[in-house]
Amino acid sequence: MRLLKQKSVGISINGSSIRAVVLYGTKKEISLGQFESIALPDGTINGDEIKDYKEIKKALLVLKKKIGFSKAVLSAQKPETDLFREIGVRISWFESPLESSARAIVKNGDKEIFMLVEIGMTGSTVSVFDHGEICYAKDIGINATLLEDVIRRRWGMDLFYEEINRHYVDWHLAGGKKDEIVKSGASKKIKKVLIYGDARDLATLSAYLTTNMRTTVALGNAWVNIVESFDKTIPEMTFDESLGFTPAIGAALKGLEI
């Protein structure tokens, strides 16, 4: 008996690009299909606000033509349902990039607490994922361009350590600060810091933080809930590419659940 494959399309929108990932799933396995990324002109998105809907619409139409889909799970700051309706696509589920990313890089069923660090082209975010929920989220004043400049100059990496470690310490010490901790349990220890995002050479940042922080630091593995063993399956998307596709991969995983 042949197992029917369910197709799921995850789309992520951030300040610098729109990415789409196709996953195919059965009861036994999940496999990677097509994936695409389209860079957005500077100023298309400012923070959480889309400034140029024409550019977003144009990029989405290109993705729709390349991949072929009529529904998708959207990972973005706002649902933008009207925009997708205009191009004939139904949003079957909407969630934040932090939720999508956590689904991709935290192993299903893992009840430990993780700090997620996204280094984006236009900005970065530190968040804490505890028992299936994002409990803490803060924008931080570093980005992929700054990281690449620091690596090229070979000094200044302490800026990244100080910024990320400050939030690591805040999580353990904040206690009842309602403006910083949404859920209870801030005293519980973070098991691991997971890094992902658009920046090149995130491995250098991971190695530096590993040397200086009082916890385990690693690159986020977006295949942890997809590929059982790299000895058996090697996705066509490289590991470095997957670091930038993390929210889209998480969104596509959500599509296989609903």
Low-confidence stretches: 176-186
What is the highest CATH level, the class of the largest domain?
Alpha Beta
Per DSSP E runs of 2 or more residues, the count of β-strands stands at 12
Range of helix content? 25-40%
CATH topology of the largest domain: Nucleotidyltransferase, domain 5
Q: In this structure, how is the largest beta sheet organized?
A: 5 strands, mixed
How would you sum up the global shape?
A: globular
- Mean pLDDT over all positions: 90
**N-C termini distance:** 24 Å
CATH architecture classification of the largest domain: 2-Layer Sandwich
CATH-assigned homologous superfamily of the largest domain: ATPase, nucleotide binding domain
Describe this structure in words.
- By secondary structure, this protein is of the alpha/beta class.
- The protein has 2 domains: 6-98 and 232-255, ATPase, nucleotide binding domain (Nucleotidyltransferase, domain 5, 2-Layer Sandwich), CATH 3.30.420; 109-219, Nucleotidyltransferase, domain 5 (2-Layer Sandwich).
- Helices cover 33% and strands 29% of the residues.
- It is built from 7 helices and 12 strands.
- It has helices spanning 53-67, 81-86, 97-105, 144-153, 157-173, 202-212, 239-255, and strands at 6-13, 17-25, 30-39, 45-46, 49-50, 71-75, 90-95, 113-119, 124-130, 133-140, 192-197, 216-219.
- The strands form 3 sheets. Strands 3-2-1-6-7 form a 5-stranded mixed beta sheet.
- Helix 3 (97-105) packs across helix 7 (239-255).
- The longest helix has 17 residues, at 157-173.
- It is globular, with a radius of gyration of 18 Å.
